[in-house]
Write a structure and sequence with these properties.
Layout (H helix, E strand, L loop, with lengths): L1 H24 L24 E9 L4 E11 L6 E7 L18 H4 L8 E9 L2 E2 L3 E3 L4 E10 L4 E11 L7 E6 L3 E6 L5 E2 L2 E2 L2 E2 L16 E10 L3 E4 L2 E8 L2 E11 L4 E4 L3 E7 L2 E7 L4 H22 L6 E7 L5 E4 L2 E5 L12 H11 L7 E2 L7 H19 L1 H12 L3 H5 L15 H23 L1 H15 L2 E2 L2 H10 L7 H8 L2
Parallel strand pairs: 1-14, 20-21, 21-23, 24-25
Antiparallel strand pairs: 1-2, 2-8, 3-7, 3-11, 4-5, 4-8, 6-7, 9-10, 10-18, 12-13, 14-17, 15-18, 16-17, 19-20, 22-23
Helix pairs in contact: 3-4, 3-5, 4-5, 5-6, 5-8, 8-9
This protein binds zinc ion.
Length: about 500
């Protein structure tokens, strides 16, 4: 009883203190006579960017059902009466749509060609049902709006859809292994708004090589409900995990990224490191622990080197997940997929895993923070990213690092580039194979920035990277803007012969 009295007294004292403090800190009540036409305005800050809110349910096999609420902000100068979305999963919907070269088919589909895609069930604009159509081999969703949108108008677009994920070693695909293990990649997996640039929507499809991502910076909240023995690794920050009987929900969110990706597996272990306040998490299969830790170590050094050279990575976390992706490593915003074969001997002891990890970390700046059209102008992000990879080897290991990188990637390729009809500024569809694309676009990037550095010096090069980032951060840049920006720096050492050498094919 004594306890109850003591407790009541404490509560009463706390309440009186609360009243006292409230009166002390509240502004004094001043009675004013309101004018009869005074109105109360509640200020509402409209969102600056699109906001994607997606809820996905995974069945533990190859199906995902999802609902997406998109807050669309018309950031164009024009009236918009149609919206267009990429439906990349439909590249797997039939044999004619699969974009790979013939010789890559067995690498993408080791157990034979397998199909998948995205089926749209329902679309609404601000609660009203809309009808839609598919174009460009079902890879573009065309959505006539119920009411046209003026500049800065905002609208809610609701889309429910179902994914059938193909058994493929790709950004969108899964593989099974062991008795009942499965690892699934979800890259380019939801309806993604196409970019509107210079009065046009960009409908480019995925090509047999290279990346297809070309999108605007947006904010994301994405939840995945999966059977409870699965883990979800994804873009952004893991805000919450909710366990309900035999399911678990992972809720991720992040602002100002270009695209949201994830992997799902019932065979993941994790390891983490923190560098400059950024938490890095490596997800790997337990049998590939050595590779999982190596990825973590390389990412830590790479973030440190690039933070200093380019400007700080602005997000709290970075995740790198072992996945099934036959071309190697794939960058997404604050998230990287790395192919499982790189985690295994003998690749782990060569520098294959290290080069790919450093390369994909560099893309966090050159692709994510500064976006570009990866189909028509792939050199903009791949050239600077591959130079950043060489820069990582040089800064981490000194001259021997530079020599080993050049010895493997550059010296063996220079003749090939010189004798090749393709130019580094060519669009993706002109390249005939991976070797030609890597040599002409990636390695020429290393040679370009190395030449730039030899002309203007290391200090100016670092200044160039930092001011380039400041100028185009969270935007998309094209080749013309890039060249204009470089010229605007007015480096005395750069005469017309430099521009002729690199920008004229
Ligand atoms: Zn790349």
């Amino acid at each position: 009883m004594k306890r109850v009295i003591a407790f009541t007294v404490i509560i009463m004292i706390m309440f009186s203190m609360f009243l006292l403090l409230k009166n002390t800190f509240s502004p004094p009540m001043v009675e004013t006579e309101a004018e009869p036409d005074d109105e109360v305005y509640i200020t509402f800050e409209p969102p600056e960017r699109h906001i994607y809110d997606i809820k996905a349910h995974y069945d533990g096999k190859n199906k995902i059902r999802a609902e997406m609420d998109l807050t669309y902000v018309n950031n164009t100068e024009n009236i918009i009466d149609n919206l267009y979305f990429h439906l990349y999963p439909n590249m797997f919907s039939s044999s004619e749509h699969i974009p790979f070269f013939k010789e890559d088919l067995y690498r993408a589909f080791p157990q034979g060609i397998n199909y998948g895609g995205i089926k749209i069930d329902e679309i609404k604009q601000d609660g009203k049902n809309l009808t839609w159509s598919l174009a460009e081999d079902d890879q573009i969703l065309e959505l006539p709006l119920d009411s046209p949108m003026g500049t800065k108008d905002i609208s809610n677009i609701y889309i429910s859809f179902e994914l059938t994920v193909p058994k493929a070693r790709f950004r969108f695909g899964y593989q099974t292994f062991g008795k009942d293990k499965i690892t699934m990649s979800l890259g380019n997996w939801y309806p993604i708004l196409t970019v509107y640039k210079d009065g046009k929507w960009c409908f480019d499809k995925h090509y047999a090589i290279g990346d297809c991502t070309y999108s605007d910076i947006s904010d994301y909240t994405v939840s995945f409900t999966v059977p409870k023995d699965f883990t979800v690794a994804a873009s952004g920050v893991l805000e919450k995990t909710l366990l309900q009987s035999n399911q678990v929900t992972f809720i991720y969110s992040i602002d100002q990224i270009r695209e949201f990706a994830a992997t799902i597996s019932n065979n993941y272990q994790t390891a983490t490191e923190v560098i400059d306040g950024i938490k890095i998490t490596s997800y790997f299969h337990p049998e590939d622990k050595r590779g999982g830790f190596m990825v973590l170590n390389v990412a830590k050094y790479a973030l440190d080197i690039f933070n200093k050279a380019f400007g700080k990575y602005p997000y709290p976390e970075l995740r790198i997940a072992e996945a099934n992706y036959y071309p190697g490593g794939m960058e997404f915003s604050t998230f990287i997929m790395m192919d499982t074969t790189k985690y295994k001997e003998p690749h782990i002891s060569s520098t294959s895993l290290e080069r790919s990890t450093a390369h994909e970390v560099a893309h966090q700046w050159w692709y994510n923070l500064i976006g570009s059209d990866q189909i028509n102008e792939p050199w903009i992000d791949e050239g600077i990213t591959e130079f950043s990879t060489a820069y990582y080897f040089e800064k981490r290991y000194g001259q021997p690092g530079r020599e080993s990188y050049f010895g493997r990637q550059v010296d063996t390729t220079v003749d090939f580039i010189e004798n090749n009809p393709r130019h580094m500024l060519d669009p993706l569809p002109l390249f005939k194979n991976h070797r030609e694309y890597f040599a002409v676009v990636y390695v020429s990037g290393v040679l370009f920035y190395d030449d730039l550095r030899s002309q203007i010096g290391e200090e100016n090069l670092v200044d160039f990277f930092q001011s380039y980032l400041e100028t185009f951060k969270y935007k998309n840049v094209n080749l013309k803007e890039f060249e204009e920006f470089l010229r605007s720096k007015k480096y005395e050492a750069l005469d017309e012969s430099f521009y002729d050498r690199w920008f004229n094919s």
